[in-house]
Design brief:
The protein is mainly alpha-helical. It has a single domain, classed as Up-down Bundle (Ferritin), CATH 1.20.1260.10. It is about 75% helix and about 0% strand. The longest helix has about 30 residues. About 35% of the residues are buried. The structure holds MU-OXO-diiron. MU-OXO-diiron (FEO) binds next to helix 1, helix 2 and helix 3.
Length: about 170
């Protein structure tokens, strides 16, 4: 059974994950407006991953005897400047999420909540991947520039991404 404090913190994180999904879906719309369908696809897959992260937390709270209370999700930005700015924002956002996961780990340790701590380890590893991927594409965009042939080649690459549901453990 999780504590009320942990329950609240996990509910907050469910909101953060759902906001992430909303943010990436909004970024996808910007790419659609530029007819960069590959970039849009990548962001749509990213949004599905975030939804899956939220569902993972939801399952855990229910299994751990807590109560899931869904919170209001802020409106994400809808105007962006460029692919480069979007991936800068993506990296920044993922670093924010990593900070939130780390705070949850700190809370779980302080409460001797080994079950929650173990569950969170999946997210600790996932965040390393999330930051690395966002940074990789940011660096590639910087290399090719925001316009021209390079961005179209990247668009083709990002169009190949498919959604793979996260593993359960
Ligand atoms: Fe669920 Fe991208 O962090």
């Amino acid at each position: 059974m999780i504590s009320q404090k942990m329950e609240q913190a996990l509910n907050d994180q469910i909101k953060n994950e759902l906001y992430s999904a909303y943010l990436y879906l909004s970024m996808a719309q910007y790419f659609h407006s530029l007819s960069l369908k590959g970039f849009a696809n990548w962001m749509e897959v990213q949004a599905k991953e975030e939804q899956a992260h939220a569902e993972k937390f939801i399952s855990y709270v229910n299994d751990a005897g807590g109560r899931v209370v869904l919170q209001a999700i802020d409106q994400p930005p809808s105007e962006f400047e460029s692919a480069r700015q979007i991936f800068e924002e993506t990296l920044k956002h993922e670093r924010f999420v990593t900070g939130k996961i780390n705070e949850l780990v700190t809370l779980a340790i302080s409460e001797n909540d080994h079950a929650t701590n173990t569950m969170l380890m999946w997210f600790v590893t996932e965040q390393v991947e999330e930051e690395a991927t966002a940074d990789e594409f940011l660096q590639q965009i910087k290399l090719v520039g925001d316009k021209g042939h390079g961005i179209l080649m990247l668009d083709r690459e990002l169009g190949a991404r498919t959604f793979v549901p996260p593993t359960t453990n």
